[in-house]
Design a protein that fits this description.
Elements: H1 7-18, E1 21-29, E2 40-44, H2 49-52, E3 69-73, H3 81-90, E4 95-101, E5 107-113, E6 119-123, H4 135-148, E7 153-156, E8 165-166, E9 171-172, H5 177-192, E10 203-208, E11 223-224, E12 231-235, E13 241-247, E14 250-256, E15 264-268, E16 280-283, E17 289-298, E18 304-313, E19 324-325, E20 344-347, E21 353-358, E22 364-368, E23 379-380, E24 391-394, E25 400-405, E26 410-414, E27 425-426, E28 442-447, E29 450-456, E30 463-467, E31 472-476, E32 484-490, E33 493-501, E34 507-513, E35 524-527, E36 535-538, E37 544-549, E38 555-559, E39 573-574
Parallel strand pairs: 1-4, 2-3, 2-7, 3-6, 7-10
Antiparallel strand pairs: 4-5, 5-6, 8-9, 10-11, 12-13, 13-14, 14-15, 16-17, 17-18, 18-19, 20-21, 21-22, 22-23, 24-25, 25-26, 26-27, 28-29, 29-30, 30-31, 32-33, 33-34, 34-35, 36-37, 37-38, 38-39
Helix pairs in contact: 1-3, 4-5
């Protein structure tokens, strides 16, 4: 594991850095900084984390020639860790070095790539950062960093790593405690800066380490901590589309000014509590929009309370109702509560919302609101080895089902076939998909007592369609981790349209006759750079509208051109 460096190790690391440097400037305080909202900021504990966990890369599509890339390491790594990071990012190119002092007094060693000044790597040679009593100091340091390096995308580590053992009182984690400490400070700093002008639209991504810190050479890359969609698109009773996105520590909303567009209004929803970068959206038969997220509150003495938050928008463009806590499937336990999974929500045919989330025991728990507005208790539905990325759907009778990725396959909960009751039963048969870690599922009913689930398989990286009647089809994909879908008639045929974000950030679209998935379907790249899975809906004029959240936290939309046959998207527009 990473640890504090001895004096000899510090000398070795300094020698390694000097091999890559062209010149050294005297230390100075950071002067006025021009806001660079096109920056991607990697905030990590150790130098190696930027390569293996948050996956910094000068060739990353987010770090294009017009976008700055800044990596900040807040704790020392092993011998030559800093030099290795500089060598890996610079690919042997020289670096310029200078000293700065942040507003909180922290000394910062800043390295700028000589051939590409937009690329910077910074080291704060601090002591251990995982001590609980150092949390406030660390948060202050991160606040100063966000002021010094304003960004549109913030990538950091996992604030609440999963346990590998539990003895009834203490959880054992493989992840280094400094990863969690840095991520917690980052999220707290985002919360404190939520009202700042340059914080609006900030896209926050947390990554979970998939192995021990003491073997960085063999450790697999980090995976998204909060799997699933950040962007949703709905159509209200008046025909106007609304997009919702988890950005800036809250929720941003874009609303069409009139049905069919092209104009939109945009706002950061007022009255929203500080939320984790998580969002699930579902719509009731009468058009009410249910918003679900997670709120994290640090606990005194360590740990945290992570709870599910819920709010309702009753009318397009109108204020969202008060956000209310629905607690956690793990109660208020300061350790167990930290591991509540990304929730998903579905509203049944009678207008009752149903929530589902992974619990501390790696199963699935649910909670349902009755028609009179009261919420029932959290119910443990069982399961094992569940990961995030759940998908909920209504069957052909308007009753909810939920599908959960797990280490052994996809688990299904549904109504008993011949039951008139409302309870869910778990299917004894797993759907044969080993989900890509950090990916999410999508599902839709495609026939009588039949649902089709879509997900990426770890074994070949391809997207698969799995029907609950046992039929499986490899439908290819463009290498994206998840998918979203919309169902609509195209040229008079009932079609399913799938969307993926390609590894280079581009939105790709595929369409086929519903319930007739072709093998390795053709995917069309459409542009529309995005940071997570795209969203889609049908507008007031019957056109498919695809939306993407770009690296600057802005909404981008493209509408179907219905003047030509088939599915052709028009030009992308940035809102």
């Amino acid at each position: 594991m990473s640890r504090g460096r001895t004096q000899g190790e510090r000398r070795s690391a300094d020698r390694g850095r000097r091999r890559t440097l062209r010149r050294t400037d005297a230390g100075r305080s950071a002067g006025p900084v021009t806001a660079d909202r096109s920056r991607v900021l990697h905030l990590v504990a150790h130098p190696a984390d930027a390569l293996t966990v948050t996956r910094a890369d000068v060739q990353d599509p987010l770090a294009d020639p017009g976008r700055s890339l800044t990596v900040v390491s807040l704790a020392p790594g092993g011998p030559d860790a800093a030099a290795h990071l500089l060598d890996a990012l610079g690919r042997g190119e020289p670096w310029h070095r200078r000293g700065e002092r942040l507003a909180d007094g922290t000394a910062l060693e800043v390295h700028t790539l000589a051939s590409a000044p937009r690329v910077e790597v910074c080291f704060a040679d601090a002591a251990e950062v995982s001590r609980p009593e150092a949390a406030a100091e660390l948060t202050g340091r991160v606040l100063a960093l966000l002021e010094r390096f304003p960004a549109s995308v913030l990538r950091t580590t996992d604030p609440d790593p999963g346990h590998v053992a539990w003895d009834g009182e203490t959880a054992t984690h493989v992840d280094h405690p400094e990863h969690a400490a840095v991520a917690q400070a980052a999220l707290e700093a985002v919360r404190l800066r939520a009202g700042a002008a340059d914080a609006t639209g900030l896209v926050v991504e947390c990554f979970r380490a998939t192995g021990a810190c003491d073997a960085p050479a063999t450790r697999a890359l980090g995976v998204p901590r909060y799997a699933g969609r950040r962007l949703w698109l709905t159509r209200g009773a008046d025909g106007r589309l609304t997009a919702y996105a988890a950005v800036g520590g809250g929720v941003a909303r874009w609303t069409e000014t009139e049905p069919g567009g092209p104009g939109w209004t945009v706002e950061q929803l007022p009255g929203t509590p500080s939320l984790l970068p998580v969002l699930s959206v579902a719509q009731s038969p009468e058009g009410w929009v249910h918003l679900v997220s997670l709120r994290r509150t640090p606990a005194r003495g360590g740990g945290a309370r992570v709870e599910v938050m819920h709010a309702v928008q009753y009318q397009t463009g109108r204020p969202v109702g008060q956000w209310r806590s629905l607690g956690s499937p793990n109660g208020d336990h300061p350790v167990k509560s930290r591991e509540v999974g990304v929730p998903c929500v579905i509203v049944d045919a009678e207008g009752s919302p149903h929530l589902f989330a992974r619990n501390f025991g790696r199963g699935v728990s649910s909670r349902t609101q009755a028609r009179n507005g009261s919420w029932g208790p959290w119910v443990d539905r069982g399961g094992a080895g569940v990961t995030d990325g759940l998908a909920a759907v209504l069957d052909e009778q308007g009753r909810p089902e939920v599908y959960a990725p797990s280490e052994e396959g996809v688990i299904r909960w549904h109504r008993a076939p011949d039951s008139a009751g409302t309870d869910l039963v778990r299917s004894p048969h797993l759907l044969p998909l080993l989900p890509v870690p950090g990916s999410s599922l999508a599902a839709q009913p495609t026939g009588p007592r039949r649902v089709t689930v879509y997900g990426s398989d770890l074994r070949d990286g391809a997207l698969w369609a799995l029907r609950t009647d046992g039929v499986t089809t490899r439908i290819g994909g463009v290498g994206g981790a998840g998918t979203t879908l919309v169902r609509h008639a195209i040229d008079g045929y009932d079609c399913t349209v799938l969307l993926q974000r390609a590894p280079d950030g581009e939105t790709a679209v595929a369409a086929f006759a519903t319930d007739h998935e072709p093998v390795d379907v053709w995917w069309e790249r459409t542009g529309g750079q995005g940071v997570r899975e795209p969203a889609a809906a049908v507008d007031a004029y019957g056109r498919i509208v695809v939306a993407s959240l770009d690296p600057d936290g802005r909404l981008r939309v493209a509408r179907q051109d219905t003047a030509v046959p088939g599915l052709l998207l028009g030009r992308w527009m940035t809102v």
